[in-house]
Amino acid sequence: MKSEISGLKFKYVFNYGLNRVRFLSPVRAGARVRNRAVLKSIEKKGFRRLLAVIENTVEVEGGDKPALAAELLVYIVL
User: Fold this and answer.
1) What is the pLDDT of residue 10?
2) Whole-prediction pTM value?
3) CATH fit for domain 3-77, picks 3.30.230.10, 3.90.1260.10, 3.30.420.40, 3.10.129.10
4) C-alpha dihedral over 28, 64, 38, 68, to 10 degrees?
5) Vertex 41, ends 46 and 23: CA angle to 5°?
6) How large is the average pLDDT for residues 54-60?
7) Alpha carbons 54 and 33: distance in angstroms, whole number
8) Which residues sit opposite 56 in a β-bridge?
9) For residues 27 and 22, what is the distance between their CA atoms, to the nearest angstrom?
C-alpha cells in the first residue's frame, strides 16, 4: 500500500525506533493528554531513502511540565 503526502509518494514507511526518550513526570489514570509532534529533520540515506526525525512531547492537561519527550525515527522508501 502506497502513502502520499503533498504529492510525494512513499513505497514503504518504517518505524525505525526512538532516540532520547525521557519520562519527565507521571501521568495519573484518567488524565487528559496530548502529543505534540514537530518534524525536526529529514536526511538522505541513499537512493530513494530518507530518515525523518520527529520530536514528540506528551503533555498532561494542567501539568507544569511534559510527561514524555522523545524523538521518533521514521525510515522512508520512495
Assistant:
1) 85
2) 0.84
3) 3.10.129.10
4) -40
5) 120
6) 97
7) 18
8) 37, 70
9) 13
Q: For residue 37, what is its C-alpha cell?
A: 509532534
What residue has cell string 532516540? 19
Q: Which residues have CB under 8 Å from 53's CB, separation 6+?
A: 19, 39, 40, 41, 42, 71, 72, 73, 74
Q: Which pLDDT band holds residue 69 (cuts at 50, 70, 90)?
A: very high
pLDDT score for 1: 47
Mean pLDDT of 37-41: 95
